[in-house]
Amino acid sequence: MGRGAIPLVLSQEGKVCSKTVINSCSDCIKSGAYCTWCKQLNFIKPGEQEAARCDTWAQLIERGCMEEDIISPKNDFSSSKNISLSNTALDKGEPIQLRPQEVNLKLRPGLPHTFTLDFQRVEGYPVDLYYLMDLSYSMEDDLRSIKTLGNELFNALQGITKKGRIGFGSFVDKTVLPFTNTNPEKLNKPCAETEMYCQPAFGYRHVLSMTEKKAEFESKVNKQRISGNLDSPEGTLDAIMQAAVCGERIGWRNSSTRLIVLTTDDGFHMAGDGKLAGILEPNDERCYMDNNLYSKSNEMVCDDMRRTQISIIGPQQNYMKHTIRDYEKYELSKMIPKSEVGVLSADSHNVVELIKNAYNRLSSKVTVTHDALPDNVRVTYTPLCPEGGPSGDKGVCNNVGVSFNVTVTADECMQSEISFLIGPLGMKDKLKVSLSTLCKCECENPVTVDSQYCNGKGQVNCGMCSCKAGFVGQKCECSIGEKDESSLRAACRKDNGTECEGRGDCVCGICQCYTLPGGSTYYGTNCECENESCEKFQNKLCGGNGKCRCKNCECKPGYEGTACQCKKSDEQCRTPSGSVCSGRGTCKCNQCKCMEGYQRPYCLTCPACQTTCITKGKCIECLGFQTGPFSKNCSQACTSISEFKMVETLPPGKPCDVRDVESCRVFFAIKQLDGEDNYTAQILKTRECPKLPNIYAIIGGSIVGVTVIGILILLFIKVLFTLQDLKEYRKFMNEAQKTRWSENKNPIFQEATTTVANPTFSGE
């Protein structure tokens, strides 16, 4: 066991081996963390399945397996690199802050292993500080202040470590709508018209690689000019990502604490904001720098910063209160766990003090976690410090020298070895964990060929016989000869189901049934029967009053029930008349089990059945008045009515009635006797028949009615015509009155000019 390993001591109490399908030692080891395999010869009894070799250590010992024959792989831990921690950064070589550096783990699935991880922050450890500044137009005053603070920044860095370096970069926003005005003139000069010194819009620009020269830093910063964009949020995350992944351009050292000092006065764009500009491709965490400019600013969106291994110090302007809350509580700490937020003064003159305070807070807090893991691997951390908190997927301690218990669990077997890294956030020091699983048994490589234990027809493999071709059986005792093995096995399947119902081995086409835990065995042609799973009563098989035979209870005389739980008696099933369940059920366990529809306790009534007033109506008509559809075979069709009487009056109560073929109402009373279809009836002698109608009155009335209706129709037509004629006459008279005749003489008319006198006329 290597340094840092904590032996896992577990008592046998609470250990369970949840076996599934076990056909070999490997199947047993894979089925549970506490499953062990007995390779001892003759350990299982004749007819017992090989899966009986798989159980917990305690159970196998109890059943007689020798300890040396029990196979139970143990977790294996070793340290392949375990260099002592460095005291100061002045030691020769690269400082060591984490121990161990490389470990190898071989784990049984489901069985956790715990080891210790030590961390000691080295005094004077190198620091690389990258000053990343927002150059949007609102940061003009801050840029002027930073140009004068170069000397103070270097002094502050020297106060932290003698091996400090500083770099510089700037950012604004993506140069696409709606983030930046894409008018060519505005892209070239995005500031106000009165601003003389304004550089074109850009996403992120790397200005100065890591340097120890103060003059070079001041020279580069003094050349910076303000720029601008449209909206308030900035392209901060793009800039941080490129500064983190472009290690060669930035000049990050492998053995240094990496800090990015982020100064801005507003929030930052999230990945979802890219949809506004049609940018959907996620950042692939690769460096894309062209002439020190981020070349894919308008093609990718970024929101996952957890793997950057960079610590962020994020000063914010004090008048942006909502932005400070976002950076401090919601956004920055989630994306970059090693981050601190402070409040800048209006012109950023207090940035040096903020950097000192933030670095002290970051350096006094150690957060240990891991990179991406497969779904079937779990890692938890238990801090060994006073205020470390509970165990979880990361460990946190507020101290420069701390230790953590690291617990690794593999839930399932893995095909090949995997590796992952564990280490403190924001630092390059990492522990490499190489992990593989123990899912095979060492005994699975046979040595003895044609073992006598296998009747010379096979070899022993983990206590089991692996038979030659043409031989089968627990000890290769069966020769299948020219027969096809599949046809022999088919004889052991009932209705093409499972071989021997899964309760035995098919040997030479015959089922050899397994032994049950209680000592009895399965039996039957296909091992379909057993005598231990019958119904229980009061926790006794068949209530202690019978025997279990092939899953069914055979009760002793005087007992009955599915679990022989009842004494035979019909006392509670007898009606006042002395019948049992009214002849419409059986008495089981002194209770009536009624026929369908009838109700307990005595099966007297059947609410769901059709009323007898309807079902027996035709028989009543036939028996009482010899009419109806059953009149020709009344005695055969109506045997269910064993007795009937013709009476003058019916007993009190609402009687039944039915209409016969002559439309007369027949009244009767019917009563059900013991039995399913047994009745007695009383039939009223007098039927209630309707009176015959007066045919002559109906015919005469019809004729008179038709005549009257015809006359009324003729009168109605006559009135209509009269009214129509009257209307036309009035219309004619009105038009005649409106006519005016001309009194002028006819121009072609001439009066007579010849006068003829009668000579004989005397005038008298």
UniProtKB/TrEMBL annotation:
Keyword rRNA processing included in the entry's annotation: no
SUPFAM superfamilies: EGF/Laminin, Integrin beta tail domain, Integrin domains, Plexin repeat, vWA-like
GO biological process, one term: leukocyte cell-cell adhesion
Keywords, sorted A to Z: Calcium, Cell adhesion, Cell membrane, Disulfide bond, EGF-like domain, Glycoprotein, Integrin, Magnesium, Membrane, Metal-binding, Repeat, Signal, Transmembrane, Transmembrane helix
Membrane topology field: Single-pass type I membrane protein
One MF annotation (Gene Ontology) recorded for this entry: integrin binding
Major localization class: membrane
Domain Integrin beta subunit tail per the UniProt entry, residue ranges: 613-694
Transmembrane regions listed in the UniProt entry: 695-721
Occurrences of domain Integrin beta subunit VWA (ranges): 24-441
Cystine crosslinks: 17-441, 25-35, 28-65, 38-54, 191-198, 246-287, 385-397, 439-443, 462-500, 467-476, 478-492, 506-511, 508-542, 513-527, 529-534, 548-553, 550-581, 555-564, 566-573, 587-592, 589-634, 594-603, 606-609, 613-622, 619-689, 638-664
Keyword Glycoprotein: yes
Record-annotated PSI domain positions: 16-66
InterPro entries: EGF_integrin_1, EGF_integrin_2, Integrin_bsu, Integrin_bsu_cyt_dom, Integrin_bsu_tail, Integrin_bsu_tail_dom_sf, Integrin_bsu_VWA, Integrin_dom_sf
Pfam families in the record: EGF_integrin (PF23105), I-EGF_1 (PF18372), Integrin_b_cyt (PF08725), Integrin_B_tail (PF07965), Integrin_beta (PF00362)
Cellular localisation: Cell membrane
A Gene Ontology term for the protein's cellular component: integrin complex
Domain Integrin beta subunit cytoplasmic: 718-764
Family, as annotated: Belongs to the integrin beta chain family.
Protein name: Integrin beta
